[in-house]
Design brief:
single chain; about 425 residues; alpha/beta; Molybdenum Cofactor Biosythetic Enzyme, Chain A; Alpha-Beta Plaits; Maf protein; 5-stranded mixed β-sheet; 15 helices; 17 strands
Amino acid sequence: MAKSKSTNRVEFIAIGSELLSPSFIETNSLFLAEKLEELGLRLSFKTVVSDRLEEIKEVLTVAKKRSRLIFISGGLGPTEDDRTRQAVAEVLNRKLIFHQSILDNIKKRFESRGLVMPASNRRQAYVIDGAEILENPMGTAPGMWLETKNQIFVLLPGPPSELKPMVENLVRPKLEKFRQHQVLRAIIKIAGAGESWVEDQIRPVYRMLPENLELTILAAPGDIQIRLSMLVKVSRKKDLLVFDRIKSKIIGLLGNKVYSTSGESLEEVVGRKLTEMKKTLACAESCSGGLLANRITNIPGSSNYFLEGLVTYSNQAKIRELGVPEKLIREKGAVSQDVAEAMAEGVRRKSGADLALSTTGIAGPGGGTEAKPVGLVYVGLAFPGGVWVEKNLFKGNRDQIKFQTTQKALDMLRLKLMELEEEKGSGQ
């Protein structure tokens, strides 16, 4: 095996036919990738393979030719289709050695629960010749750490509840010897802008990017993320300065569209600001159906600033609970700027909150007209001395429109709080 091709490559193989079906999602690689990046290691390949022995051996043979560090999860159980041990042993031309101590531990685990160990669990006591056993206090399948002349194979159980503590407590300390680099990461979150606008604004940054810095834009309805990732040597402070300079440049180019630089959600950012400023909030929802209040109250400590939320879905509820004039709804329609304004003022008056949000619109898929199409949403914000209403035309399905509605409402609140803070700072 050519050393130059495999020295820095790390590979993950998930074994299990169920992971190739639409019913199961493979998540172990996500956890492992995160832990590896903390050590300055990155996955180069990720593969999901069935339980069939020949297909497992085929994948392992490829991995053996190209990667230095190979993680394998799954297929270590007691059933006939758990073939990982056999496949790795055959590919490496090694024997499986029976360990009585492993079998004794498995028996004790069953006995502690008042059960008799099934005979099939005996297969879990076989270990590949030369492998170090990785104890599994959460299950019956021990892991293995196997070093050859040029490579390391790490066999891990498939259940995340067993794999995660094994990686944290046993595998991670062994990986420390590989630490020559660290990964610098940043997440810049943007609201109130589209992906193309963000791309245009940060275009000057691309000329500044060193080869080892990756910039990725992730776009979702109502929310844009810029992810920065830079692999650097642990001792090089110069790289830290470069990373910080590029991050600051991006934030400066995007201005107040940036709502978080540390991975926080918009509701977390708004909640922290409300707490700091000692402001209270209420909301009146129609088309968002309670999603706005749900997002707000998902944040611990939200009882310090959130007073109440009303889902006034029908016209009668808007009239009865918020005091929206019946004539206004009849003349302007429930989905209108005037009604959004009246809803925000109504819930602010009723609750006594410092600020109040309102939403009214057409989430679809039906109910739209040429004059008022699906996705038309008005978001209102009432505050001391006025009301601010924004007209929006959101795209997407019902859930996406509802989320974008709440994202818009929270962002309007964020911007207003920034404005109030600036006014207070300037002494106005």
